[in-house]
Amino acid sequence: MSKRRRHDGEAGNGARAAFAAFACVVAGGCTSLLDARDLERAEHGLSALAAETALFVEQFEQGEVSRTFASVHCAKLLERHHDIASDLDDPSPTTLDARADAAREAAAKIGRTLRRLGDALARGAPVAELRREIGALRPASPAKGGGPT
Amino acid sequence: MNIAEIFLGVMTALGGFVDIGELVFTIQGGAKFGYRLLWVIVLGTIGIILFAEMSGRIAAVLKRPTFELIRQQLGRRTGLGVLIASNLVNLLTCAAELGGIAIVLQLAFGGEYRLMLVAATGLMLVSVWFLPFRWIERVFGLLGLTLLVYAWAAIALAPEWGDVAKGLIPTAPVDSAKDGVLYAYFAVGLFSSILMPYEVYFYSSGGIEDKWKPKDLPVNFITSTVGFSLGALLSMSLVVVGAVVFLPRGIDPDLLSTALLPPVAALGYKGFLLALLGVLFAIAGASVETALAGAYNIAQFFGKEWGKARKPTAVPLFTALWIAMLAAGMLIAMSGINPIKIVETSVIFAIVVLPFTYLPILRVAGDRKLMGVHANNRLVAAAGWLMFGLIVLAALAAVPLMWATRMGEG
């Protein structure tokens, strides 16, 4: 069972655990080893998370979203980060070790920055300094860019 | 025909077209595949127009609600299975909508999610209890029009309209087989999210509540065709904003709060406020519709007294049922599961059940002995059966695609 699903179960809530078990069976993600597909998904998730953080912090700095929104959204991104980081806790096969370590390192950096961002937003402190760090967070990812077609 | 009534009906249909499921699948579809899923919206809209128009016509001519027909057409035992499955999907959808309202309230006012969930459920209970049926329909439908901010944002973001138009022609991504499977999952999910049957249960029961007669058939026709077609344009704008704002940045919009960012990118703070209000009213309306649809289905299947137009105490079972739907929905959402994941599950299972609710309507609407001159003409019958074939295909593919893509995670 992947760490994300284990985390859901440990929340001690029956319904949540039942849903997690259902999702685990349907999604076919009940393996204990971090395979290439899981790793790719985690890398993509981290890259998307960093990109989204950069976008909404920029919108916040320009006064386009409220501080309450930014604060709650940041907390939700942190929850998503926790899910992705938990998946990366699974042991990886030696062929994927280097990539998995890089992803874990990126996850740790993103997590730290999101926590600092959450604290700054809660205290009403400026986030300009954090914005520069966030810009540099995005890890190498197989995620596609480019314009829509 | 009362023009003001028709206009209000069309606007209500437009404002109530998008719910949390559609919001999620359309924006995610745009973020993952650009404009390549736009044709699915056209197909799904033709499906919902056919389904709703036939159900409304049956309500006006025969005054018989959907689940009474399902029991008669499929038999009591099969019909009961369809009722249970349909109401489980309704319940999951209701839970996702309530969870969505709680998140929007949290984004607007801060506070704790579960507290907001209780507040959201309380607000919905009070609204349904005190507002007359027509007011429920109109208030949430018309306030849901604030969601048009996404259409405004889509225009303001100035996409390449030629590329957008190309999305109306079915094309699959050719990058890899994995992309193809993910594309198929989103195509089925988007198709299903537009065809969510609770909208039709609510619509046809509403026709009976409003005491539609055959002379009201033009209202039914215009409301379903024009209202839902305009709704389709709104859905397309969701795909466009997902494609323009999220795809180039590689963002996965799998949080409700993320779905609010494109109007902000296009319109700034006013986009933020309007998106917050639009999403709130759209999903609040859908939560009420799912709760009432669940109550309608059970009462109609078992031949019990029902009707929101009647005093709550005059229809005690019906009243208890919609209250129970809201309460159970709240408990599911209380578990803390991401409402987006709940709604993805309900959307996929909705298409699995749909053939069993669509077929009885198609058969009755085409039966000249029952419907007389109001039975389906050849064009509607042909389109109806073709759509049934597509629905069956989508129903067969839905769960395997859900499994193969790990619920769309790739």
How many domains of chain A? The number is 2
- DSSP strand tally of chain A: 0
Radius of gyration of chain A: 17 Å
| Percent helix of chain A | over 70%
Mean pLDDT metric of chain A:
78
**Kindly, what is the distance between the CA atoms of the first and last residues of chain B, rounded to a whole number of angstroms?**
50 Å
Biggest interface between protein chains, with counts per chain? A-B, 45 and 53 residues
Outline of chain B: globular
Q: Give a short account of the largest sheet of chain A.
A: none
Rg of chain B, alpha carbons: 20 Å
Q: What's the tally of helices of chain A?
A: 6
Please, how many domains of chain B?
1
Structural notes for this entry:
The complex is a heterodimer of chains A (149) and B (410). With 149 residues, chain A is mainly alpha-helical. Chain A folds into 2 domains: 1-30, no CATH class; 34-135. Helix content of chain A is 70%, strand content 0%. Chain A is built from 6 helices and no strands. Chain A is elongated, with a radius of gyration of 17 Å. Mean pLDDT of chain A is 78; it is low at 1-12. Chain B has 410 residues and is an all-alpha fold. Chain B has a single domain, classed as Amino acid/polyamine transporter I (Up-down Bundle). Chain B is 77% helix and 0% strand. Chain B is globular. The termini of chain B are far apart. The model of chain B has no long low-confidence stretch (mean pLDDT 93). At the A-B interface, helix 2, helix 3 and helix 4 of A face helix 5, helix 12, helix 13, helix 14 and helix 15 of B.
What layout of secondary structure does this protein have?
The complex is a heterodimer of chains A (149) and B (410).
Chain A lengths: L2 H8 L3 H14 L8 H26 L5 H22 L8 H27 L4 H8 L14
Helix pairs in contact in A: 1-2, 3-4, 3-5, 3-6, 4-5
Chain B lengths: L2 H13 L4 H14 L4 H24 L4 H9 L1 H34 L3 H18 L2 H11 L5 H8 L4 H6 L10 H18 L3 H12 L7 H30 L14 H7 L1 H33 L14 H19 L4 H27 L2 H4 L6 H27 L6
Helix pairs in contact in B: 1-7, 1-12, 2-10, 2-12, 2-16, 3-10, 3-11, 3-12, 3-16, 3-18, 4-5, 4-14, 4-16, 5-6, 5-14, 5-15, 5-16, 6-15, 7-14, 8-12, 8-13, 10-16, 10-18, 11-14, 12-13, 13-14, 14-15, 16-18
